[in-house]
What does this fold into?
Amino acid sequence: AQKITQTQPGMFVQEKEAVTLDCTYDTSDQSYGLFWYKQPSSGEMIFLIYQGSYDEQNATEGRYSLNFQKARKSANLVISASQLGDSAMYFCAMREGHSSASKIIFGSGTRLSIRP
Amino acid sequence: GAVVSQHPSRVICKSGTSVKIECRSLDFQATTMFWYRQFPKKSLMLMATSNEGSKATYEQGVEKDKFLINHASLTLSTLTVTSAHPEDSSFYICSARPDGALRSPLHFGNGTRLTVT
It folds into this structure.
């Protein structure tokens, strides 16, 4: 069963606009973590933001914020004031459980393209 | 910050040969490391969990005899693609998290692009 679902294979956004990348997840664990990564064409994986299942506040990191809707099992990434350098693949990921050995699985990704 | 070094970044080999990929955590200890495979324009697929001092845990459908994993120390895991064939051509990427740092993200190496001719 698909555990992480990203329904937007590709998105085009005008520079300086905000963009929301969707992510829903499925787990029966009470303790889990949600991550967003950016992968530019160079292939490196860049960590953006983390949300723990028990965190009461939505995570924010600079221009990135995570809209965590626990009851709906969604963890959308919001990028404010988009920049040309934001063009990349974006992956939502989930860690189930609370062990440092807990694996992290990834969604199918969203390719974001920023238009000048 | 936590750095993961992966070598080589690119390798071309002939069919039937074996290729070893190294993954090192440079400034932290990692009892557990993770190996992923990524096809072009696709997501990262977890292949196996590498455990220091014990056998790796392979995901369903991943051949353990084809993809040998050795986690010899708290900072080094290796993936050996044995008897490589063209269908093994892919982007392999390792990752690790500092021991005990549950909220820490996985830190990724820069990946190895394997081409089997």
Remarks:
- The mean pLDDT of chain A is 94.
- Chain A touches chain B through 21 residues (CB under 8 Å).
- Residues 20 and 78 of chain A are 4 Å apart (CA to CA).
- The longest strand of chain A covers residues 88-96.
